[in-house]
Design a protein that fits this description.
Layout: H1 5-14, H2 21-27, H3 34-44, H4 53-67, E1 76-79, E2 100-105, E3 116-120, H5 127-142, E4 146-149, H6 155-163, E5 169-172, H7 186-194, E6 198-201, H8 210-226, E7 230-233, H9 241-245, H10 255-266, E8 270-272, H11 276-279, H12 286-294, E9 298-300, H13 303-328
Parallel strand pairs: 3-4, 3-7, 4-5, 5-6, 7-8, 8-9
Antiparallel strand pairs: 1-2, 2-6
Helix pairs in contact: 1-4, 5-6, 8-10
Family: Belongs to the DprA/Smf family.
Pfam families: DNA_processg_A (PF02481)
Domain Smf/DprA SLOG: 77-235
Length: 329
């Protein structure tokens, strides 16, 4: 398993009270010495007790012991300050920026010059939705664009599986790489890796409670938005769908709503799959309809608008690479 001393220091710093993503982004650039980090924690955090270098080194050794147990399930971890740490897309506030990532597979799929589109949706799409989603993903993959999704059942799995037919895909997990969630998609995760794809997560330990797990799913939804150049909603119930349609025997609202919200906040282009004549009375398109009615910047996918969106992504990413080369040589 690959990791730098810097990455372990970043992870260790976050274990101390009052140290979150925002604090680390504000105070650390990466590759600071342990002594410098300890000094910053003591002077610029809500840590009540003074910590010593020995305290820090002890926590650091505990983390190293824990992550080295991953063995073959994880290729490595990267953090801010590491050369290979991927750059997020969009405008992201400090508290939501990633500071370290555990990965297995081809980490370069998150590079800015790699064209990525996230495809998400509900857990139980009907057959018509699946057919339409597969066609969209097929068109995206034809243009050499990587599909990003969350390895969940339903629309996520459909996106990953279709992408594997001639393309590559990135799965973002709410769990350690040593414990794939959902467990029934472990085979799909392995297939993604075999086809040259990527698995990533911000977690190296298991969740401690239902509330903790819920928070991790929200973090997963956030990463789906900030590691893509555009996000597509295949279909999803809305927050009030259960009450509206009197469906109380299952959870209808999905993480897709959160991911689309994050994308809006980050200024990531958003698109939805929707056909007014076919989908008007289908509750599985409640969120799609809601987004279309509330947001003027939502693209309704057709073959033409999909191709235009891909063209814009490729043109924009090409320009970003040219600017980086001009700046850094």
């Amino acid at each position: 398993m690959k990791y730098t001393d810097n990455a372990i220091n970043i992870i260790t710093a976050k274990t101390f009270k009052g140290i979150g993503r925002a604090w680390i982004v504000k105070n650390l650039k990466g590759n600071e010495s342990v002594e410098s980090i300890v000094s910053l924690i003591n002077s610029k955090s809500k840590q009540k007790e003074v910590i010593t270098v020995n305290d820090f080194e002890f926590e650091k050794s505990q983390i190293i012991n824990q992550i080295e147990r991953f063995e073959d399930s994880c290729d490595g971890v990267v953090a801010i300050g590491d050369k290979d740490f991927p750059q997020y897309r969009g405008t992201v506030k400090e508290s939501e920026r990633p500071i370290f990532l555990f990965y297995k597979g081809d980490l370069s799929l998150l590079d800015l010059e790699n064209d990525n589109i996230t495809v998400i949706g509900l857990l139980n799409p009907d057959e018509t939705i699946e057919i339409r989603e597969r066609k969209i993903v097929e068109e995206i993959v034809k243009r050499d664009v990587t599909i990003v999704s969350g390895l969940a059942f339903g629309c996520d799995s459909i996106a990953h599986k279709q992408a594997l037919i001639g393309g590559k895909t990135v799965a973002i997990l709410p769990s350690p790489l040593s414990k794939i969630m959902p467990a029934k998609n472990k085979g799909l995760a392995f297939e993604i890796l075999e086809q040259g794809g990527l698995l990533i997560t911000e977690y190296y330990d298991e969740h401690k409670s239902a509330m903790d797990l819920s928070s991790r799913y929200k973090d997963r939804d956030r990463l789906q938005a900030l590691f893509c150049d555009a996000i597509i909603l295949a279909a999803s119930y809305a927050q009030d769908s259960a009450q509206r349609w009197k469906i109380f025997d299952q959870k209808l609202d999905s993480g897709a709503r959160l991911a689309m919200g994050f994308a809006k906040d980050y200024n990531i282009p958003r698109a939805v799959m929707y056909d007014q004549s076919a989908d008007l009375e289908n509750p599985m398109f409640d969120l799609n309809r809601q987004l279309i009615s509330e947001q003027k910047d939502i693209t309704i996918l057709t073959q033409k608008t999909l191709q235009e969106m891909i063209d814009k992504i490729k043109s924009s990413n090409k320009r970003k690479v040219e600017i980086q080369r001009d700046l850094f040589g």
